[in-house]
Amino acid sequence: MSRPRLRGSRFATRRAHLACLALTCSGLAFGQPEVHPLDFVIGDFADERTVPVAVLTTVSIDGRRCSVQLDTGVSRAFILHDRQDGPATSSITVELGSLQSTHAVPDADKRRLAGCRPGKPVASLGNAFFDRRTVVLDFAARSLSIHDAATLQDNPQAQPFRYATWWGAEGGFILVRVSGTRHLPSEALLDTGSLRVDLGVLDSATWAAIADTQSPIAMPFSVPSWGRLIQCRKAAARWPLVVAQRPAAKPTLTYCPDLAFQPFEPILGVLGMRRFLDGAITIDFISHRWRAPVLIAALPGG
Fold first, then answer.
1. Domain boundaries, the chain
2. Torsion over CA of 295, 272, 292 and 39, rounded to 10 degrees?
3. pTM (2 d.p.)
4. Cα–Cα distance, 291 to 286 (Å, whole number)
5. Considering the domain 159-291 in this protein, what is its CATH number?
6. Lowest mean pLDDT among 42-56, 97-111, 247-261, 275-289
7. What's phi and psi for 300, nearest 5 deg?
């Protein structure tokens, strides 16, 4: 799915990052998770102002610290933003703690990346970068934990997912179960790149079937995506859906007709991170299971 790339940012302290480099870079070798800080890009989305619109972490690209977006809507390990035309005659090395990958790029991109800096994302890390490990994105604590083992295979609160390798390239897409969809498909693509989206609808037929266009929140809006402004709509769903073990609720639907992403098979849409920003999501790529934040009921009088 195309990624919203909105301007404006607010970043957490770098002290946590320095502590991570000093203490945890060899963590996987000792069976402990590596922990890295998360940052948010702050911007506008629909009628919301100054809200988190993308989640970032800091990597090393050829030895230089650069910000990248964490995006499970991308199957490949690494995708440059604003990639230049031309043959990929150079290469870059991307490192996140002990994880490392090398990628062929045009000479112009290698020169451009030499000037990257934290705070301005230059690329996205996709599923193939992590897909032999377990990752925990704790949005509330602003931390990314990477485990070199399956952590959810025996967890009763975890849910299975299907790892779809539609185009035969590296990585895949995380398809999770959604209940209560009636006649519509019952899988959605789990997408950390859609931070403000609850459920993103991908086609007009699904939008017509499930969107309550007379709901009070219904409205058109536009969003920058991959260097262009695309037109979108949002509305409440007509009926509630169930995701993981969370209570049934009517999701807020988003539909952007001009998005380029079209899956290989029918799915309900894209499950974004909007409902999970109060906690952490865990993705176990080894056992193909995931866990959403558990909703805690308010105490009496709270």
1. 9-147, 159-291
2. -90
3. 0.86
4. 14
5. 2.40.70.10
6. 247-261
7. -55, 130
